[in-house]
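Would you kindly consider the sequence and fold I have copied below?
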Amino acid sequence: MRKVYAVIVSGIKSKQPQLADALDYACEGDTLIVTRLNRLGRSTLDKLKTLQSIDAKGRRVQGLDFDSDTKIPAEKLVTSVIASLAQWERELC
């Protein structure tokens, strides 16, 4: 069964109730699909903490901005780099 959550606030905001609801709803083995990985937190550290929390509960994240799956170690590395680049890009503006 699929459930869709629409996030209408910026990923820069620290409070993201829709993301929290989606994470609470997901069960072990589920995949959280996000349009962009930068929607998972306001900073690189927030994103990585969110990803670590998801992973620890037996869930995974798939980003649509590039084909990624956080259960694969090499793609987890790429996800970390993408999170860092997104924060760097935001700080330039």
Notes: The radius of gyration is 12 Å. The mean pLDDT is 81. The longest strand covers residues 31-34. The chain has three helices and two strands.
